[in-house]
Amino acid sequence: LGHGSGGQLMAELLADLTPRLGTPALDDAAIVVTGRPEIVLSTDSFVVTPRFFAGGDIGSLAVHGTVNDVAMMGARPVALSLAYIVEEGLPLEELRLVTASVARAARACGVPVVTGDTKVVGRGAADGLYLTTTGVGVRLPGACVSASQAQPGDLVLLSGPIGLHGVSILSTREGLGFDSEIASDTRPLHRLVATMIAAGAQDVHVLRDPTRGGLASALNEIATASSVGIELEESSLPVPAQVAAACEVLGLDPLHVANEGCLVAFVAQEAAGRVLRAMRRLPEGARAKLIGRACDAHHGRVVMRTLVGSRRIVDMLVGEQLPRIC
Amino acid sequence: MDATWRIEVRGIVQGVGFRPFVHRLAHRAGIRGTVRNAGGHVVIDATGTRPRLEEFVSGLRRGRPEAAKVDEVRVSTVPADDPAGFFIVDSCTAGGTLPQIPPDLATCAGCLRELFDPADRRYRYPFVNCTACGPRATIIEALPYDRERTTMRDFSMCRACAAEYHDPADRRFHAEPIACPRCGPRLSFLGTTGDAALPAAVSVIAEGGVVAVKGLGGFQLVCDATSEDAVTRLRSLKARELKPLAVMVRDLTTACVIAELSDDDLRVLSSPSAPILLAPRHRGILATGVGHGLPDVGVFLPTTPLHHLLLDDLRRPLVVTSANVGGSPMPIEAVVLETDGVLGHDRRILGRYDDSVVRSLGRRATTIRSGRGLAPLPLELPIPTSRPLLAVGAQLKSTFTLADGERAVVGPHIGDLEDAETLEAFQDAVDRAQAVHGVRPELIAHDLHPGYLSTQLAHASGKPRIAVQHHHAHVAAVAAEHGLPGPFLGVAYDGLGLGDDGTFWGGELLLADYVGYRRLARFSHAPMPGGAAAVRRPGRMALGYLVGGETAVRKPSPQRLAADSPSLRRMIEQRVNCPVASSAGRLFDAASALLGLCEVNSFEGEAALRLENAATGHNAEPLAWRLERRDGLWVYDGVATLHDLLAARDDGEPVGRIAAAFHATVAAVTVLMCEHAATETGVSTVCLSGGVFQNRLLAVDVLDRLEAAGFDAYIGERVPVNDAGISFGQAAVAAARSSCA
Ligand SMILES: [Fe+3]
Ligand SMILES: [Mg+2]
Ligand SMILES: [Zn+2]
Ligand SMILES: [Zn+2]
What we know:
With about 325 residues, chain A is α+β, with helices and mostly antiparallel strands. Helices cover about 30% and strands about 25% of the residues of chain A. The two termini of chain A are about 25 Å apart.
């Protein structure tokens, strides 16, 4: 398997696996139909290396990741479960630190960890420590978001700067030296979502946290799932200067770098101003902005108007970033 | 006793005055019957005595019009008819296999005389043409090629033009785009139309303005090539900072003033396809901004009467370049740039054809970009395809090839597919070609690279696909162009293409036929720190070789590389975003960077071009090199050569000499690899391909050395060796596989 970086290979793997489970879903969480309010369920495993990085650690990431996946369904997360897989030999102190971080993050989110499990496996059977979190939420009143709900004419809103998490992790892991200036953006987004739904309800069509594969992959998935085209403006993309500089050295496209603390939303044009103002009232949305729009052309494709005025196709990441130049 | 023969003539026989020529020939030989266009070929029913018929058929081959090309003459006997004379009859629209679209032709000598003859009724008429020249591919809606299926149907012929069109003795007999000032297209410029438009545009250009001109295959930007300000302004409009600009000159005499041209070059320049020729530039009259210190200048002659008039009025070389921004396609409907006016006209352009570019390799020339005048390029496949197929090419310099049976046609250069408008133009051009040729592909050939947008189009088509390895396609294109039977040795040197082992290739020697290949030798591996960023910054590549190369033995001392940094070294050590490549193009980049010749590749191949420029005129012995046996392959160790290059630089050798020595090294290694391969396989035919062979020094040296060593050596001539040739190679391979399956 060479599917670790998200993007197209992962999409193909999932397309292969999900039918075997009998599930058609593409979203990061699912609605469990039990009546009203609708229950939302999401699960995710966390295998990040290094486990401690600027801005967070595997514990806070496991909480935020699942809280956010539940929130992206337009839901209010209500409880989490937590499972550890621990490699024999992991210092107990490290496990305590991670657990404390989980607790702190959960408390800050206002979402309790209500059940859990711990397994210890032999040396070499796992790489240190893996976490799996499952989140349960209830749909916010009026919410009807899904990756397939984008409409031509929708405006694309982004809650904050991109590229921080991926660059910070890579830099710390490989000792590249950018981590002193760049911290992961990992943070919960469920309050931001609640504010947006309150401001827009039916007008918020899609919510997505652009994690692995970055903004480019998230937008491509939405474009495909909703059969719309997406037009981005390069000039309005919030790429922090340190991220841009690090990406230049690393040869990475910030659009392909993972995020853990921002969301992208497709909002009906007439409601977009209202939703944007609501977002900016919260710290996690203070720098929210309009980055593009959905259109009724080039369905399934994301196109960016570049700074020099040409229109570049923004593709899903294929495996590693394979250069296409001859 | 009279017989009736049916004679079918294939090749470039439409839109070049072939039917009128047949008519004249029939009259001379005393033949009765008919001639008509059918699909893309010409069908003649000829009645006469056997000796006269034979004389007639041989005359078809010998006396053909200048721009025609006869590939095949098929004769069969049909029941005798008794026609009263010889007639040109209406075309029949029944399809054959892959009819050919005639390319556009530059103004012929006859029309040029009329253009500047005050007594002629077409004096200074910018749309004069005849059966031997004028627009073709750019205005055709469908085949067969007749006025009613071109955009000239918007104009109804005046009585004088109609008389010429219907008179078999006239040189405009069946000249489909026939026009005159009374009935044909008219110019317009800033609100003026007709006679006033041209002088107005001329004075804007004379004063240093930049004017958009509607050419044959799309809009161009035109300005005074001797004015620094005008050239700078044009560059900023196009957002093109450094890539050289083409210069149009009035005649061959002026061409010789700005460039070093051989007799062969002069023939290429004045051919009916009138391509841009890349040739060594003379110092002097051109603004420095035209070429920015690069060795070659792209020079060409006027391609239409309108360009002749502009050059004649302005009496100075003009920059003539496509009116697009950055990587987007040449516009054919309107110009969005803020020029000082658009010199347009009311004849619609249907096919987008950029000006063609050709580079002289001494005895031969290689096509860099196939566009107006050269495309669509009809070729024969060595192994016919069992089903109609479409080959979608690579990612950069995109072209497509349509094939049916043994016939293939390579479409014009379209550009880099990452640009959204180029991708749309690519899809439009494919759709248009399928409609015009009447072919519905049942099979799609594409590259192995999953990220190429062409590959994604192939997947999206839902049709059966055949994936062809990039370098196999490169060398198969050359072999197929020259009709070689195979097997052959293929030397593919380029920047990058995905190999079948998941690494990037680009310095490869393959034993190949049209179905498959076996890798026999390669350049050594090196990491590309930052992937595409290492392509943009040649210094990174140098660091990649010296710090992380497959054969790097010692750590380089801090070199004079601007690209060097602890982060980069760390990336190489940890293999962070460091795809591995065995690429000749990347080795040229590294050498260029280590000699201080290129910091940033501002356009594709710049570092190598600057290295070639430095080497030109120097003679030198090869640098150190090593060819080792590794995992069943011959591996050329590029690091050893780079170390020796650095040592030579430290010894104070002149950069030009070292650059020449580097070229000599790669040439010598190439020949030795071929000799090993020939010993191993008994095959002594070599095909050279890949963008690196656009390098004149290297190509000529390798060809000469191979021939001296007894090889039959070939290089792409009509089919580009760069990625524009990939689609044809894919078609040749997919066709062979389709018919052996
Ligand atoms: Fe190539
Ligand atoms: Mg998830
Ligand atoms: Zn003519
Ligand atoms: Zn007329």
